[in-house]
Amino acid sequence: MRVKHQKDFWSGVMFVLAGLAFAGLAQRYPLGSAQRMGPGYFPTLLGGLLAILGLVIAIKGLARDAADGRIDRFHFGPLAIVLGAVALFGLLLRPAGLVVALLALIGVSAYASHEFRLREVLPLAAVLVLIVLAVFVWGLGMVIPVWPSMVAN
Amino acid sequence: MELLNHLALGLATALTLKNLLYCFAGTLIGTLIGVLPGLGPVATLAMLLPFTYVLEPTSALIMLAGIYYGAQYGGSTTAILVNLPGEASSVVTCLDGYQMARRGRAGAALGIAAVGSFFAGSVATLLIAAFALPLVELAFKFGPAEYFSLMVLGLVGAVVLASGSLVKAIAMIVLGLLLGLVGTDVNSGVVRFAFDVPELTDGIGFVAVAMGLFAFAEIAVNVEKRGRREVFTDAVTHLWPTRADLKEAAPAIARGTALGSVLGILPGGGALLASFASYSMEKKLAGAGATPPFGQGNIRGVAGPESANNAGAQTSFIPMLTLGIPPNAVMALMIGAMTIHNIQPGPQVMSSNPALFWGLIASMWVGNLMLVVLNLPLIGIWVQLLRVPYKWLYPAILTFCCIGAYSINNNPFDVYVTAVFGAVGYLFYKLDCEPAPLILGFILGPMMEENLRRALLLSRGDASVFFTRPLSLALLLLAAALVLLVALPAIKSRREQAFRDSG
User: Fold this and answer.
1) Which tens digit of pLDDT belongs to each residue from B421-432?
2) Which of B90, B110, B332, B428 has a CA between 20 and 30 Å from the CA of residue B203?
3) Where are the domains of chain A?
4) Range 173-192 of B in CB contact (< 8 A) with A
């Protein structure tokens, strides 16, 4: 059998999995009764509903023929670089301080663009760091580590 | 004359130097980001929300509202000058606005958009003030069963009036409701779906969800695209529309305002629906003999939708402020902002925080005035901003988002959550799943569970309570009628047609 509408079929699968996961995990919490609902009641209800909806969507995806049903290529490269840069910011912020974390965020994320040029990114990073320091740290007095903890002490 | 007293209180709040300043800052920053391509109003609000936490609630909401209509307005400027809608509701502005710009009439298009928006904004502000009292009184008659049914209607309405697959949108709502349940259950104290992560006991932060789904996913999608934009930056002269322009556009502005105000109040309505509806109405009314034809730079095709989307954007505050029910994703964020400031959204806001309530309403009018003052003379600066290439822009967006996400709880954990939802949002984009319904569900999840629980507790577990109480039944019937209406084959094809025509 051929999947005719890939987008619908796979989003249906996604909803079924998510619904089953929530409903399954909810079984760890007391279900209660309709009159006295336990913490497991509503999630079980919704999880079941989501799984059914997902099933409907997936079946429609098998049956419905459409020109725009194909899923576009996933470009994992840029996605991973952008989100990796964000995660790196979170990791670096406390030990290394705002300045280092921002330089890492901007430097790494800019690399995701196909127009990446180091000599453009360096001034951009410098300007952004200065703006952030001026507005949030000096201006609004935000409590955030600015320099690496060993330098600051 | 109660209304006048309320408006006086509102103006007294909105016109303090401090609130004027925040309103100004909000509209300015909103316009700035709205003009820049690549961030819609939802993403803009999510990005800037954390920075308003330090303000007091009234100032914070005034500023956020300013950011919202600033972003909305800025999006129209981009639509006219670059043929690139800053957000979905200015898609139709592209059609005739950009054509006007290509014919050297960019100034007139921008001017008429400003005049129309201001007129619509003023009317809508008065409407909000007038509608607020009766609606709040009605809301006080609501029990938990009615509230539950109202939320069902709101959620159903939100997806019926949106474009795209109906079942998918409903599934997104349910997924949002489930994600909203993560964290401590208020009734039993049980921590749900937290996987022993201490940061999740308070639930997933809604700012992190919105930032990830809207801003980060958008960046990931844009970065992989290639291509250049064509910008009409040197053609903006004669900002003020001529007398003939005004005369031609005036009826369109009036119709757009009326249509937008009505559609804004509906669940799922707001700026987007209003602008689409107004455009097709103007096109139909003008007929085939319009000169120039629609789609080739007719000024009514700019004036109508621009007035309608501003009116709709304003009146969508009505259900949010009076009932605590968000009609669209932007209002869901506003509700989230209120909760963070410890204001329980709902009909009691008006009586418990009258200065906030009426101050916010009055500030909308003040903000609209500022938009006109701000935009017409400063248009040159906005035009320059359009030249900023995306490769510089997105690292800046990421910077502000990351700092914002961190500052919510002064904890890097929220930054990671945002990144996770960025990946999820990217997947949604590839699978054609609209993220807006998910945000609505996410905000309403705990409220819905609470009302369902209370309604069934009162009825001793008898689910028929939703159908035996007349008000609740009426709301549910309305929701069912909406679904049936859209599911009918004849209407279904027309609905798809309508979105394709104007999109």
Assistant:
1) 999 999 999 998
2) B428
3) 6-69, 76-152
4) 174-175, 177-178, 181, 185, 187-188, 190, 192
